Structures are given as C-alpha cells and as structure tokens.
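I have been asked to look over a protein record a colleague put together. Thanks in advance; the entry in question is below.
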Amino acid sequence: MLDLRRLEILHRFSARGTITATAADLGYSPSAVSQQLAALEREAGIALIERTARRASLTDAGRELAEHAARILDAVESAESRMRARVGAIGGRVTVSCIPALAPALAPHLAELQRGHPELTVVAHETGSTTAAAAVLDRRYDLAVIDDWSAHPPAEGTGLSVHRLRREDIVLALPSGHPLAEQPGPANAARLRQIVGDRTWLCAPAGQLSRAAGDQRLTSVGAVPPRRWEFEGLHVLAALVAAGAGVAFLPAGIAREQAGVTGLRPVPRMQRTILALTRTTTREDPAIAACLQAAKQALGSGH
C-alpha cells in the first residue's frame, strides 16, 4: 500500500515545483524529501520523478499519482475533521496566515484563543493576498486572511471556502496640509486628476491587488502621476502620506488612524473586501472553526 505521508510529499512537490521549496514547506531537508519520493517510486513500481543535474520534475505517472494523491488527502482530511467534530475539543496545530496590515488586529484574538485552549497550537505567518488561495489549497495554511480590492471578490471555488468578513471604503489619502484637503466634497474625476497630476503617487509594487485597483482607477479618469514611489505595506504608505511625500489610495480605517492624513472619498466609490479562506474539507474541524471565529470577531463588520 502507498504511504500516505509520501503521497503528501508528492502532492506538495507537484504544487511547489522544486525539491527545495517542498522541503521548506514541510520542514524537511531536501535530501530527506528526495529519499521519500524515491521510496514512493519503489512502492508504486514506476518512475515518478525525472531527475537531471539541475532539476527534478514529475513524469506522466508522477502527475497522475499526484492527482490521485490530492483526492486521497482531501478524503482523509475530511474524515479527520468529522472525527474531531465528534470529539468537539479545540486542539492540534492550525496554521494561520494574514496580510501585514490586518495582523495587529487579528493577533490578540488568536493569542486569547490559544490561552483558552492549551491543546491548541496556532502558527502564524505573513501572507500576500495574491498567493494565499493556492497556499491554502496545497495545505501550507489552514486559514488565510486577505484583502481583495476588486469590484467582485472571488466566490467559493474547487476545494476553497471563502468567508466575507467585511467591506471597507477606499479613500484618496492626502497630507492634511494639502490645499485641496480643506475643500469639502468627494474626489471626482476632475479633482482626482488635479491632485494626482502634481504629486508623487505612492503605491504598492506591481502585482499587488491594491496596485492593480489603483492603476485601474487612475487610468479610467486619465490621471497621470508625474512619478511613482513603490513600497510594501499600507501603513508604510500612510506614514509617507502624513510626511508629505505624496498621495495614495488607502483603506479608510488606515487613513483615519494615521495622524496628518485626510481621506477624500472617490467617486465612483472604491472598496476592498476582507476575506478569510479555508478548505472545504476542514469546515467541520473545531480548531479551524475557532480560529475562523476569532478572525470574524477581530475583523468583522463591526470593526
């Protein structure tokens, strides 16, 4: 019979693409991963990995077995979740990831949950919104808390449960001393072009969801900033706005919290959605459900 743990390694290798990345995810050495995959090949009686001096990749048989492994692991995880639900105890290990801007609000709730349940171990990581779904599906994370700046946030997909925590307005953030910050009214197209046209535009690097949403709005109104500064982290952008370095699109809550920043509401309205992602196979797991409830308490519509 094929070893379940080795099937999990094969599945992770299929998702990650390299021995090194697979080893890092699982906490093994690369040589240990290679040894386990070789043992799985002996169990299966066929070559699963094509090895060269520079890389390793799945053979056709390896890809087929990885697909079987995904279904097997889903079934096992679902069965484990149901058995844990029967017991009802909150314990075990739950891996939670969160985008940096939301971590200060979420962390105290997770810490309180862990204190109340000594058998529970919460392992927390930073994540990016663009990669979180894939990381949940390949079991690097059990729960991911992200934001989505698109007009239509993702719905549940194959194997993924999407929990909407709240919607939040996006504002055009200006230094409080900016002449237009004192003028009432929203930031319509003409006003946005005027503000952006003579200020440094502060934004996330390309590939971030907030960057894509901001670029789309600027393009739609014909606003062309004279220069861009790119920084990771919405709180970093807020601090730069307060320092007079430029202007940016920011969540309204972050703009309010930062002294020296005034937020103007864009027209049409811009919003982001705070989401929690889990696997459908763990929906009955009491520990993951408790962590999800902590996220709802920390980041739900009442906040």
